Amino acid sequence: MYIMLLAWRYLRTRFIxxxxxxxxxxxxxxxxxxxxxxxxxxxxxHDRLHGILSDIExxxxxxxxxxxxxxxxxxxxxxxxDDLESITTVVRVPALLHFEFRGRPMTHTIMLIGxxxxxxxxxxxxxxxxxxxxxxxxxxFELRSDGYDPEIGHCGWPYRREIAEFDRQYREQLKKxxxxxxxxxxxxxxQLAMSDSVGQKAGERRIPSLPSSPPVIPAEGIDERKNQFxxxxxxxxxxxxxxxxRPPIADEDLFDPARDQYTGIIIGKAxxxxxxxxxxxxxxxxxxxxxxxxxxxxxxxxxxxNPTAIMENCTIVDFYSSNMHEYDSSFxxxxxxxxxxxxxxxxxxxxxxxxxxxxxxFKPGVDLSQMRDKLIAAFPPDMPYMIQTWQDTQRPLxxxxxxxxxxxxxxxxxxxxxxxxxxxxxxxMIVVEKTKDIGILKSLGAPGRGVMSIFxxxxxxxxxxxxxxxxxxxxxFVWKINEIANxxxxxxxxxxxxxxxxxxxxxxxxxxxxxxxxxxAGAIMIAVLASVLPAIRAARLHPVDALRYE
Length: 550
Hints:
The protein is 50% helix and 15% strand.
């Protein structure tokens, strides 16, 4: 009983104990906040990395192709059995995207991906990342009139029709301007000719002007009627034997940008915009370079042993925004069948279409590593396929994040370690200061183990109180972390969490109960271990030595 009584007395009456408690509290709160924020970032990153990547992908190396796609799909279905949820095929090829912005030509490197609009959304989380609400429900590569994100601004068919009408009026005005210049030049020539004739009548010497039309050279033996032949009434001498077989070309058969579109393409939002930092006169914003409804040009290589560069016109129909800059700044999607036709990935004899990769999604709970090993065994090394899970594809990034989290926890635990050294120094001071009291306790019959227990209980109480307060403080900070960030931003005038950099609207946090337990156990253990050496010294103190000079 006296052990806990003395421990509580030291804890309640000593100011230095409060300092030790505060250091433990800050260390525990910091660990909880950092781990919660890092867990939220890692979880969001996993979701977005997995959102565009399938569970397992079978791909050919480089730009090579997978032929006999139906046979491969049947083999995968037989191997996966009931664990298979969905499967799709894609074509990937690096390409160049060309467009003009305010009269300035711009080129952007992209990874062009041909997808099946029926099955691609069942293998990946593609639909939620689209800007158009209609495409989020049912993907279509046709330009829509409404449903786009209001942040994009004026876009879709209304925007495309306005741009087409503006171009038409511009061409008409340019044509009128050219005609006006031509008439002005003709009038100037006539005026100069008249002035020449007047000057000659007055006896002036002038350089003769150039004739306005080529001279007519008479030919002997030509009928006079032929010399008077009207060229405007002449018919083309060439005869077209297929002219009667060709259908007449109507206006609706010609491409009209106000009514028609090219092959639809969905591009990453970071391709179509550029972040503009804040200045003294304006806030940070995105400069929109392209909108749904604009036309772009795509340059890409053909398939086969000797690829050549080809160009295709496309119309932007939607934006893709996964909030992962690596994807949003490079990915572009178009219909799988169109990309296969453009690149020549269709067998001219059998009509089979080749692909770049086969993406597979399994039901929840399936061991992806085990399924990957089965697929590797089914498709031996003589088939040069790359079979990887989504974790294998992003292994360097995931390992780097895990390493960063481990090092961060070690560094933050050093804060609690510093608090432990403070407790160690405090306890040694207490042992020296309370030497007389320790001697009296031992002379009254208190065993060395009991004296040691006083200091151990004191260290346990310091660690427990500091850890408990730190847990409450850390959880409260995590709960209101976005409000706290906004408050700091208001007080300092600087943006603490910029969504344009981190691509999160709010700071993500996840509090794991096991993480809180481990942090609490580690802090209490450090506090108890820091009190062991002073407790052993107090327990070994002899009563005679303690009271010799009293």
